[in-house]
Amino acid sequence: MNITRVFEVLEQQLAEYPRQDSLGAKVKGKWITYSTEEYARIANLVSYGLLEMGLKKGDKILTAANNRPEWNFVDMGMMQIGVVHVPIYPTLSADETLYIMNHAEPVMAVVSDEALYKKFSALTPKAKSIKDVYTYDEVEGAKNWEEIKKLGEKNEAKHKDKLQGIKDSIKTEDMFTMIYTSGTTGVSKGVMLSHQNVSTNLMDAIHYLTLDHTDKVLSFLPLCHVFERTVHYGYQFQGYGLYYAEGLGTIANDLRELKVGGFVTVPRVLEVIYDKIIAKGKALKGIKKQIFFWAVNLGQKYEHNRVNGAFYEWQLNLANKLVFSKWREGLGGRVNMMMSGGAALQP
């Protein structure tokens, strides 16, 4: 299947690779998952709810949240009715956030937690377009995203055919998101991206995602960044089980628990993992320490296509058994990684 509109990635998964753990996240110490059918159902209810609230194609919704299944429900619910998603970093300063609020002119905002709700509530009176702020977490006094879903459920019969008509009318050149730059050359710039901008990149890069559709993947880079977001749609297109890390500090533990097949990263995360591994090696004594750093030095000389010769490959096989296999176990098994700005890696 060749997609031309981003919401078709969910239709692809539903038709070709439905699974019980399409999305997953840890809540109060336990992994909670949603099936492909539940994902599609909730996204549709969000679409119905937004339609009942009067939102229409071309309106914008701003979000500031951590990676979580609810991000997908609202994101997909928006794009199915032509509402433009404006995701921003939750860590932006109040001034930067207010600037984007007034520049993008969203009609509402959805944020993850109490701290962000307080931040946005204080800024909303200064924003010229935002009428409401909703939260993903339950926050006292705040409107919750579940209210949108429940409103959609009550009005499903009213909007079901309308939703399909809107989806059919959306063109590949229609804008579906605005992503703001870091602002390193002045104020942040809002980059308007169409379905075509993302879908063509996705289809061109899909061959890098070489896992089986039964595999799981871990996500921890911010979804408001276009790299993680594009790959994130690729995961859905390929039918992978998409799990969200609790945080940067839990990545290694999450990998071990889930035994994922791959994840997307940036060099700094790998540097931190590498530093921790080397620190453990330095704490070893005697022959164990010698074997450890012999394996490290051997690995640093690695070249593709066996160009180092048969003796090197024999040594590498031994190092794999003695040292590298334990590293892999610490990451949950064999893990595929893709780096931002780099190629796919298969340790």
Q: Ranges with pLDDT <50 over ≥5 residues?
A: 341-347
Would you list the SSEs in sequence order as H and E?
HEEHEHEHEHEEHHEEHEHEHEHHHEE
Shape verdict: elongated
End-to-end separation in angstroms reads 30 Å
How big a fraction of the residues is strand? Answer: 15-25%
Q: What is the number of helices? A: 13
Task: Give me the oligomer status.
Answer: single chain
The order of strands across the largest sheet is 2-1-11-10-12-13-14
Percent of residues in helices comes to 40-55%
- Total beta-strand segments: 14
Radius of gyration: 22 Å
What kind of sheet is the major sheet? 7 strands, mixed
Class by SSE composition: alpha/beta
**Average pLDDT metric:** 91
Protein architecture, described:
The protein has 13 helices and 14 strands. It is α/β, with parallel strands linked by helices. The strands form three sheets. The protein has a seven-stranded mixed β-sheet with strand order 2-1-11-10-12-13-14, with helices on both faces. It has a five-stranded parallel β-sheet with strand order 4-3-5-6-7, with helices on both faces. A two-stranded antiparallel sheet has the order 8-9. A hairpin with a 4-residue loop joins strand 13 and strand 14. The two termini are 30 Å apart.
